[in-house]
Amino acid sequence: MEQLDKNLARDLLRRYDLVGAATAATAAIETASNPWPYRLVLLDVQRLKGKRAEALKELEHLAEIDPPHQEDVESCIGIKKLRGYYAGLLGRYKLSHQLLLDAEELAHSANVIESLAEVYQCQAMIHFLQRSYAESDRIFRLILNLSRQIGGWYFRGSALWGIGKTQMIQKHYQEAIPWLQQSLAVFENERVELSMALVWSEMAVCHLGLGDDRQSLDLLRRAEAVQHENGTVANYQIVLGNIGNVYLYRKDYPTSISYYQRALTIAHEIKDPVSIHKWTYNTSLALLRMRAAVD
User: Fold this and answer.
1) Residue at 96 is within a domain
2) How far apart are the C-alpha atoms of 272 and 277, rounded to whole Å?
3) How many folded domains does the chain comprise?
4) How far is it between the farthest Cα atoms of the chain?
5) In which domain, by residue range, is 272 found?
6) Are 123 and 100 in contact (CB under 8 A)?
7) Does residue 2 fall inside a structural domain?
8) pLDDT in tens, 104-135
9) Quick one: DSSP state of residue 30?
10) What is the CB-side half-sphere exposure of residue 235 using CA atoms within 13 A?
11) 48 assigned to some structural domain
12) How many Cβ atoms from other residues are within 10 Å of residue 138's Cβ?
């Protein structure tokens, strides 16, 4: 029964059903002989709601006062994985890479393939944030290979999205779109709306890069509604910033600045150093272009 509860909470989290995942984990943790699988779910819900620093602080506190048993390998991997991922999201890259490497080695030695794939997901995203796109792409392709062994939709959809994302950020828009379309098909088949919204955002960037600002804005409006409704503020602020990019492309500088400022406010709230830098730079760029247009 406990294993079923653990799988339910994890699967709901993978579907971005944050309310369902939190409810399942909170109910199960009261009677669980091992609370750690549910703690990890609740911490990741907290992270997805934008409370990255708070989640990391709580995780480190719990790991210190009530560590899992050594034989609970999956929880030991999960703690290192989330500590490393959260540290990376907060810009603490050296610590992040070391913790994620420790988690990877532990997953390898224990031959826990799903846990290994989850560690790879975190490593790929941290390399992406550091602009190590070739390494990020390589790791997403490792996840795609593992997804064939694991089966199911989750890792396959995530890997296809990640490969498309790394192509997109390098402005390989034509190459990115087929990968993103494949991932969208996976998420649509499973009706995972928040994952679909992530793909819409990446596809919107591709369409804008190819000169189709109308299609780009349409995709971003759909993503904006989904992210706002679900309270996933980290992803929401990225959508807002990308909407700002559409208005920058259209030379509607006041509107672009208003979206950058909204995104920047959230980026400061969630302590996202990459987004803070990006939206600050884009605001300055829009102001310069607006002044040049007036002159």
Assistant:
1) no
2) 9
3) 1
4) 70
5) 232-295
6) yes
7) no
8) 999 999 999 999 999 999 999 999 999 999 99
9) T
10) 25
11) no
12) 16
Among all chains, which residue has been given the structure tokens 């400061």?
268
Mean pLDDT, residues 56-73? 96
Non-local CB neighbours of 53 within 8 Å, separated by 6+ positions: 86, 90, 271
pLDDT at 222 over 90: yes
pTM attached to this predicted model: 0.94
DSSP structural state of residue 69? P
1 has a pLDDT exceeding 70: no
Distance, in Å, from the CA atom of 108 to the CA atom of 166, rounded to the nearest integer, reads 25
Is residue 287 assigned to a domain? Answer: yes
CB 292 within 8 A of CB 273: no
Q: Quick one: average pLDDT of 136-140? A: 98
Task: Give me the amino acid identity at 34.
Answer: N
In whole angstroms, give the CA distance from residue 259 to residue 248. 10
Helix-helix angle 18-29:2-14, to 10 degrees: 160
Question: How far from each other are the two terminal CA atoms of the chain, in whole angstroms?
Answer: 70
